[in-house]
Specification:
The protein is α+β, with helices and mostly antiparallel strands. The chain has one domain: Trna Endonuclease, Chain: A, domain 1, CATH 3.40.1350. Helix content is about 40%, strand content about 30%. Helix 1 packs across helix 2. The longest helix has 18 residues.
Length: about 130
Protein backbone atom coordinates (compact mmCIF):
# COMPACT_ATOMS: atom_id res chain seq x y z
CA UNK A 1 0.00 0.00 0.00
CA UNK A 2 1.02 3.53 -0.72
CA UNK A 3 0.96 4.67 2.93
CA UNK A 4 2.41 1.54 4.54
CA UNK A 5 5.70 3.12 5.69
CA UNK A 6 3.91 6.08 7.24
CA UNK A 7 1.36 3.93 9.06
CA UNK A 8 4.19 1.70 10.38
CA UNK A 9 5.93 4.78 11.74
CA UNK A 10 2.77 6.01 13.50
CA UNK A 11 2.06 2.54 14.92
CA UNK A 12 5.67 2.35 16.12
CA UNK A 13 5.20 5.63 17.99
CA UNK A 14 2.02 4.27 19.58
CA UNK A 15 3.82 1.07 20.60
CA UNK A 16 6.54 3.11 22.29
CA UNK A 17 3.92 5.16 24.20
CA UNK A 18 2.02 2.04 25.27
CA UNK A 19 5.27 0.35 26.29
CA UNK A 20 6.15 3.27 28.56
CA UNK A 21 2.70 4.14 29.95
CA UNK A 22 0.88 0.81 29.77
CA UNK A 23 -2.90 0.86 29.87
CA UNK A 24 -5.29 2.52 32.31
CA UNK A 25 -4.96 6.23 31.57
CA UNK A 26 -7.49 8.56 29.96
CA UNK A 27 -7.32 9.04 26.21
CA UNK A 28 -5.95 12.59 26.51
CA UNK A 29 -2.82 11.31 28.31
CA UNK A 30 -2.05 8.96 25.41
CA UNK A 31 -2.81 11.74 22.96
CA UNK A 32 -0.25 14.04 24.61
CA UNK A 33 2.38 11.29 24.79
CA UNK A 34 1.80 10.28 21.16
CA UNK A 35 2.25 13.90 20.08
CA UNK A 36 5.64 13.95 21.82
CA UNK A 37 6.70 10.68 20.23
CA UNK A 38 5.57 11.68 16.72
CA UNK A 39 7.47 14.97 17.08
CA UNK A 40 10.59 12.99 18.03
CA UNK A 41 10.14 10.86 14.90
CA UNK A 42 9.79 13.92 12.67
CA UNK A 43 6.16 13.31 11.71
CA UNK A 44 4.15 16.36 10.75
CA UNK A 45 0.70 16.41 12.29
CA UNK A 46 -2.16 18.48 13.60
CA UNK A 47 -3.78 17.50 16.86
CA UNK A 48 -7.52 17.90 17.58
CA UNK A 49 -8.00 19.18 14.04
CA UNK A 50 -11.54 20.24 13.29
CA UNK A 51 -12.76 18.89 9.97
CA UNK A 52 -15.97 19.70 8.15
CA UNK A 53 -18.40 16.92 7.27
CA UNK A 54 -20.48 17.33 4.14
CA UNK A 55 -23.70 15.66 3.11
CA UNK A 56 -24.35 15.92 -0.63
CA UNK A 57 -22.04 18.91 -0.78
CA UNK A 58 -23.66 20.71 2.16
CA UNK A 59 -21.74 21.48 5.35
CA UNK A 60 -23.57 19.63 8.14
CA UNK A 61 -21.10 20.14 10.96
CA UNK A 62 -17.63 19.44 12.16
CA UNK A 63 -15.78 16.67 13.96
CA UNK A 64 -12.41 16.80 15.61
CA UNK A 65 -9.98 14.16 14.56
CA UNK A 66 -7.41 13.21 17.24
CA UNK A 67 -4.51 13.48 14.77
CA UNK A 68 -4.16 14.34 11.12
CA UNK A 69 -0.69 13.11 10.11
CA UNK A 70 1.31 14.29 7.10
CA UNK A 71 -1.87 15.83 5.64
CA UNK A 72 -2.97 12.31 4.71
CA UNK A 73 -3.76 9.95 7.58
CA UNK A 74 -6.49 10.34 10.18
CA UNK A 75 -5.62 8.80 13.55
CA UNK A 76 -8.42 8.12 16.01
CA UNK A 77 -7.40 7.16 19.56
CA UNK A 78 -9.31 5.15 22.13
CA UNK A 79 -8.55 4.08 25.71
CA UNK A 80 -11.01 1.22 26.08
CA UNK A 81 -10.78 -2.28 27.51
CA UNK A 82 -11.63 -3.57 24.03
CA UNK A 83 -12.46 -2.17 20.62
CA UNK A 84 -15.86 -2.95 19.21
CA UNK A 85 -17.24 -2.94 15.67
CA UNK A 86 -18.84 0.47 16.26
CA UNK A 87 -15.39 2.04 16.80
CA UNK A 88 -14.10 0.54 13.57
CA UNK A 89 -17.20 1.72 11.70
CA UNK A 90 -16.71 5.21 13.15
CA UNK A 91 -13.10 5.37 11.90
CA UNK A 92 -14.13 4.10 8.46
CA UNK A 93 -16.92 6.67 8.26
CA UNK A 94 -14.46 9.47 9.12
CA UNK A 95 -12.16 8.39 6.28
CA UNK A 96 -15.05 8.50 3.85
CA UNK A 97 -16.49 11.76 5.18
CA UNK A 98 -13.09 13.47 5.05
CA UNK A 99 -12.25 11.84 1.68
CA UNK A 100 -9.02 10.38 3.08
CA UNK A 101 -7.38 7.25 1.69
CA UNK A 102 -6.49 5.67 5.03
CA UNK A 103 -6.90 6.05 8.76
CA UNK A 104 -5.69 4.38 11.92
CA UNK A 105 -7.74 3.36 14.93
CA UNK A 106 -5.45 2.91 17.93
CA UNK A 107 -6.57 1.61 21.32
CA UNK A 108 -4.32 2.16 24.34
CA UNK A 109 -6.79 0.76 26.88
CA UNK A 110 -6.12 -2.95 26.39
CA UNK A 111 -3.16 -4.78 27.95
CA UNK A 112 -1.60 -5.00 24.50
CA UNK A 113 -1.82 -2.09 22.08
CA UNK A 114 -4.58 -2.61 19.50
CA UNK A 115 -4.55 -0.94 16.11
CA UNK A 116 -6.50 -1.22 12.90
CA UNK A 117 -5.83 0.31 9.53
CA UNK A 118 -9.05 1.50 7.89
CA UNK A 119 -9.28 2.15 4.17
CA UNK A 120 -11.59 4.35 2.20
CA UNK A 121 -12.18 2.04 -0.77
CA UNK A 122 -13.82 4.92 -2.66
CA UNK A 123 -10.57 6.92 -2.62
CA UNK A 124 -8.59 6.91 -5.91
CA UNK A 125 -5.38 5.94 -4.04
CA UNK A 126 -7.01 2.63 -3.09
CA UNK A 127 -8.29 1.54 -6.50
CA UNK A 128 -5.72 -1.30 -6.68
CA UNK A 129 -6.51 -2.39 -3.12
CA UNK A 130 -10.18 -2.70 -4.08
CA UNK A 131 -9.31 -5.15 -6.87
CA UNK A 132 -7.29 -7.38 -4.50
CA UNK A 133 -10.10 -7.68 -1.96
Amino acid sequence: MKYENLTYKIIGCAMKVHGVLGNGFQEVIYQRALAIEMNKQGLGFQREMEMTIFYEGIDIGTRRVDFFVQDTIMVELKALIRLEEVHLAQAMNYCQAYKLPIGLLINFGAQSLEFKRVYNLNHPDNKDYKKQS
